[in-house]
Amino acid sequence: DADVTQTPRNRITKTGKRIMLECSQTKGHDRMYWYRQDPGLGLQLIYYSFDVKDINKGEISDGYSVSRQAQAKFSLSLESAIPNQTALYFCATGSSGRDTQYFGPGTRLTVL
Amino acid sequence: QKEVEQDPGPLSVPEGAIVSLNCTYSNSAFQYFMWYRQYSRKGPELLMYTYSSGNKEDGRFTAQVDKSSKYISLFIRDSQPSDSATYLCAMSGYGGETSGSRLTFGEGTQLTVNP
Questions:
Q1: Which of B101, B94, B111, B103 is nearest to B22 (CA)?
Q2: In terms of Cα–Cα distance, which of B104, B32, B101, B93 is closest to A31?
Q3: Beta carbons within 10 angstroms of residue B64's beta carbon
Q4: How would you write chain A as a 3-class SS string?
Q5: Nearest CB neighbour to B43, from listed A31, A42, A106
Q6: Are B89 and B72 within 8 A, CB to CB?
Q7: Is A101 part of the contact surface with chain B (CB cutoff 8 Å)?
Q8: Which chain A positions have a beta carbon within 8 Å of B44's beta carbon?
Q9: How far is B69 from chain A (nearest CA, A)?
Q10: How far apart are CA A65 and CA B103, in angstroms?
Q11: pLDDT tens across B92-108, in order?
């Protein structure tokens, strides 16, 4: 079984819709991250959480929100999706005291 | 200017070739360096992790860091078609401390190894 899972794996939606991407992990890590990946831009950090009560904005948080429901679950929401949010979205986990991160399989989101 | 520069390629080599992948960076605070491999339609997976300057070898892979030149490399010996993937460099200045456990990634280099 995968250590970091993401649902859905693919999603097509329309401009203005609210979308939630979910991430869960069985690695026992306390830190969780959301990234988006675009051609030519690489991985950009959206939000990160060091524990359930600690949420931090990353480089590109505008238009996104997150919820850390439990140590193992971290969800990303697009309140009102727009076409330039079309991208690959990755969840990652890590442990305190270490900067290595472990990625989920990704969600391909298309906003029409 | 980006903090981390990586040539996106694409890079195409014959099977058995030695591959050299490189990143340059501008932030002298970076001390921890990683290479991730990303297969098509998959998430990045950690390949190599090094601290400060020097070399680290793992099988056919060697990671090299030159902090004086702000330059890191990944060498792949005896490359195989299964090595075809995108390789991303990543780096951090904080080693996991609460104040800065964030990675800065390069754009990634797309590698194809032809049989």
A1: B111
A2: B101
A3: 19
A4: CCCEEEECCEEEECCCCCEEEEEEECCCCCEEEEEEEECCCEEEEEEEEEECCEEEECCCCCCEEEEEEECCEEEEEECCCCHHHCEEEEEEEECCCCCCCEECCCEEEEEC
A5: A106
A6: yes
A7: yes
A8: 43, 90, 103
A9: 23
A10: 20
A11: 876 555 544 678 999 99
pLDDT, tens digit (0-9, with 9 covering 90-100), for A55-85: 999 989 999 999 999 999 999 999 999 999 9
The answer to whether residues B75 and B87 touch, using CB atoms and an 8 Å cutoff, is: no
Using DSSP bridges, classify how beta strands A54-57 and A64-70 pair: parallel, antiparallel or unpaired: unpaired
In A4-43, the residues whose Cβ lies within 8 Å of chain B are 4, 31, 40-43
Give yes or no for a contact between A75 and A24, defined as CB atoms under 8 angstroms apart: no
DSSP-assigned letter for residue B98: G
Residues on chain B touching A97 (C-beta within 8 angstroms): 95-97
List the structure tokens of A110.
């298309």
Tokens 């892979």 found at: B61
